[in-house]
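subagent[fold] <- orchestrator: predict structure for attached chain, return C-alpha cells only, no commentary.
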Amino acid sequence: MPVKRRKRPPSLLQRLAGAVLDLIDGIFRTMGRLFFGILRGIGRGLVLLLRGLLFLLRRLLHLICLPFVALYRHLTGKYNRASRCLRLTGEEFEAYAAEILRDNGFKHVQLTPVSGDQGVDILCDRGGKRYAFQCKNYQGSVGNAAVQEAYAGMQYYDCDVAVVLCPGNFTASARRLAQSTGVLLWGEKRLTHLMQVSGKRP
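subagent[fold] -> orchestrator:
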C-alpha cells in the first residue's frame, strides 16, 4: 500500500501572503460596493432633477399659453362658465343657484317645494325687495312660458321682482314679454358673473 503523505502546514510566508490577498480582495469589494452606491445615488439625483425640470417646464408652458387660451375662449364663446351648469339636473341646478345667490348678497334664500311651486323655484331678499326666481336649465333658448310662470309666481308669493335664471339665452318673444311685464331675464352673462363672484363650481 502506498504511504499517504502528510500535508505540510502553510508556512508563515504563505499565511501572510494569503492574508494580504484577502485584505486586497476585501478592499476591492468594498470599493466596488461604494462605487456602485455612488453611481446609484447619482442616478437617483439625476432622475429627481429631470422630474423637477419637467415640472418647471410644464408650469412655464402653462403660463405662456394661458393668455392665448383665454383669448381663444373669448373669441369662440367658450369662456361662458354658465354652460357648466348644463351637466346638473333641474333640482341640482336650483340648489346650486341658491348657493351662489347667497354668495352674491341675497338674504333669506329658500327653495320652494318641488311640486306646486307655482312657477317659482327660489325665494330671497336683497335691497329691501323680495325676489322670485324661476330656474331653467336646458340647452337652447328659453321661451315665453318661463316668463309667464315667473310673473304668476311673483304675484302668488307677493314678491317685488321676478327673475328667470338660465345658463343660455332667451327667445325674442320672451324678451318682449319680459319687457312688458317687468320680469328680469338673467342668462349666460349674468349667471357667469354670479358664478365668478361666488367662486363655487357646479
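orchestrator: received. Logging for downstream: Residues 12-76 form the longest helix (65 residues). The mean pLDDT is 84.
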